[in-house]
């Protein structure tokens, strides 16, 4: 069933486990995510990043997810990851996404608040949940350069409270030391900062850059207050490694199936790390999402 992230993340926060948000980029990765969530009886948030619209359009993704969601009782949310343009956010909502992320984290604090609040007003009008980011999660290749100055980009706990209150967002992505892509250097997460943020704000917290962070660190972050963890790089690496291991492959469809199985196994591992196995029943059937096909860009339906 297709839902937004509201009850899903509230239950994760209440019972202190994490919901995975794996990003899909084609039909094989999408099927792997669906299969993994079904076999593990896990709620899941399927992400499509704005930068990946060239791989799979939001309209294609929405149609495929709707098809699979109608065939399972597993709670599935369809989420726009790192939406930075108004056009992409409107396009995703019109297509049938049940959740969006507005990433205005590189803007000044006041402008980040204003931008996020505008998206919340539009999205909430059609029952779509909104995630925003405060602070900035950088790239893994720059990780070895993280120093005291770079930590100024981490989420400020006092600002976090004001940000959540003034924007009305449903979940907050925090910067505490994780990074997108592969790490160059060893991850160091600021758990004290995370604990303070979790104490300060009431909405569920999101951790971007879960790949390569390490099981123990992710478990610790979830215990400290993280309710959603984004995973992408490790899924692509698992698929590529499996296909490379099986070389030579002369039949392209076989490569896709090998990658699909590897993605599924990698994701099931993270389900266990996040403690969300057999938590599908936490989300009420009353939360089933009805697509807003008559949505218009003004935020009315």
CATH topology value: TIM Barrel
Kindly report how far apart the N and C termini lie: 22 Å
Q: Regarding CATH, which class? A: Alpha Beta
Strand fraction: 5-15%
Defining key terms:
single chain, 301 residues, alpha/beta, TIM Barrel, eight-stranded parallel β-sheet, globular, disordered C terminus
Protein model, in words:
The protein is of the alpha/beta class. It has one domain: TIM Barrel, CATH 3.20.20. It is 43% helix and 14% strand. It contains ten helices and eight strands. The chain has helices at 6-15, 27-40, 58-69, 86-95, 109-124, 157-167, 191-200, 215-224, 233-245, 252-274, and strands spanning 19-22, 44-49, 76-83, 99-102, 129-134, 171-174, 205-207, 226-231. An eight-stranded parallel β-sheet has the order 1-8-7-6-5-4-3-2, sandwiched between helices. The chain is globular.
Brief synopsis:
43% of the residues lie in helices and 14% in strands. The chain is an alpha/beta fold and 301 residues long.
List the helices and strands and how they pair.
Layout: H1 6-15, E1 19-22, H2 27-40, E2 44-49, H3 58-69, E3 76-83, H4 86-95, E4 99-102, H5 109-124, E5 129-134, H6 157-167, E6 171-174, H7 191-200, E7 205-207, H8 215-224, E8 226-231, H9 233-245, H10 252-274
Parallel strand pairs: 1-8, 2-3, 3-4, 4-5, 5-6, 6-7, 7-8
